[in-house]
Write a structure and sequence with these properties.
This protein has seven helices and two strands, in the order ααααββααα. It is mainly α. The protein has a domain of 82 residues. A two-stranded antiparallel ribbon has the order 1-2. A hairpin with a 2-residue loop joins β1 and β2. α1 runs antiparallel to α2, α4 runs antiparallel to α5 and α5 runs antiparallel to α6. The protein starts with a helix and ends with a helix.
Length: 288
């Protein structure tokens, strides 16, 4: 976008200089000179505003990538005034299994597993527990001037039966079950949100792809119209007002084309994010 604005500003400045010479020579009206200067100033203003946006974007990238600004600018320099070109293939649908690699869904799934384990532990706490306790040790006995070494041991079972606890264990089971139900509800909500996000990304990607061809034709047509208007003005058969109108239309068409391409790139990035990107769960979290 900045390259388009800079090119437009340079062209308008040349026009303003030429019109100023014609006005001073008495071959053109002062109003046309004022119009040319205003158009050139407006173009410079657009360039300054776009430069500010670019600088802000660079600062954000420095923060996100933890890279020094000079190194980042050096990396970006070869791609200046160029948008990334996504692959030309179409994505009609995304398999549901792909959503399992989303970190938020994986975390929600592990919350369900943890809640289910809590329910099982709370239920087990309500039943009798049989335990086996004992000890093994060494002992020595001295008798008649002699010492006898040996091993002693003792083992015994123990049975713990919950009889009267005022409903505490039952309440623990109910609380664990409620946490499990909450984890399940959170997982369903997150899964529905993931499906919605993928559908929206697919819709934006398809719309941007269909709009890009029309935007290219519009930019080409307005560019040809601007070239014709420029020629007519140079030979004296066209007015400066007509030239400025043609220039504004061509500029708007170029900006529209760039915007559509940016939306297409953003749609690809959004789709990549909604399906989890390159994140993969560790082996110890996927095994059960």
């Amino acid at each position: 976008m900045l390259a388009v604005y800079e090119e437009d500003a340079a062209s308008l400045q040349q026009t303003a200089d030429l019109v100023g010479q014609k006005v001073r020579a008495g071959f053109d009206a002062p109003a046309n000179g004022a119009l040319a200067r205003a158009s050139a100033a407006e173009a410079v203003n657009r360039v300054a505003a776009q430069q500010t946006e670019c600088e802000l974007s660079v600062r954000q990238l420095v923060q996100l990538t933890a890279t020094s600004e000079p190194a980042l600018r050096e990396q970006l320099l070869p791609q200046r005034a160029r948008l990334p070109q996504p692959s030309s293939f179409e994505v009609a649908a995304v398999p549901a299994a792909v959503l399992s690699q989303r970190p938020d869904l994986a975390a929600a799934e592990r919350n369900i597993v943890a809640a289910a384990a809590e329910v099982g532990a709370a239920q087990a706490d309500r039943f009798p527990r049989l335990s086996l306790s004992g000890s093994i040790g060494r002992a020595s006995i001295r008798s008649g001037g002699q010492t006898f070494d040996g091993t002693t041991w003792s083992f015994g079972p123990g049975l713990l039966m919950p009889l009267f606890d005022g409903g505490r264990r039952r309440a623990n089971v109910d609380a664990a079950q409620a946490r499990y139900d909450g984890a399940m509800a959170a997982y369903r909500e997150r899964a529905l949100a993931a499906v919605r996000e993928v559908e929206e990304a697919l819709l934006r990607l398809d719309a941007a792809g269909r709009r890009e061809a029309d935007a290219e034709r519009a930019a080409q047509g307005y560019g040809e119209f601007l070239a014709a208007a420029q020629t007519q003005w140079q030979v004296g058969v066209g007015s400066l007002l007509d030239l400025e109108q043609a220039r504004r239309a061509a500029l708007a068409a170029d900006a529209g084309l760039i915007q559509v391409r940016r939306e297409r790139v953003s749609a690809w990035v959004q789709l990549y994010k909604t399906v989890g990107g390159a994140w993969q769960a560790d082996d110890d979290t996927t095994t059960r």
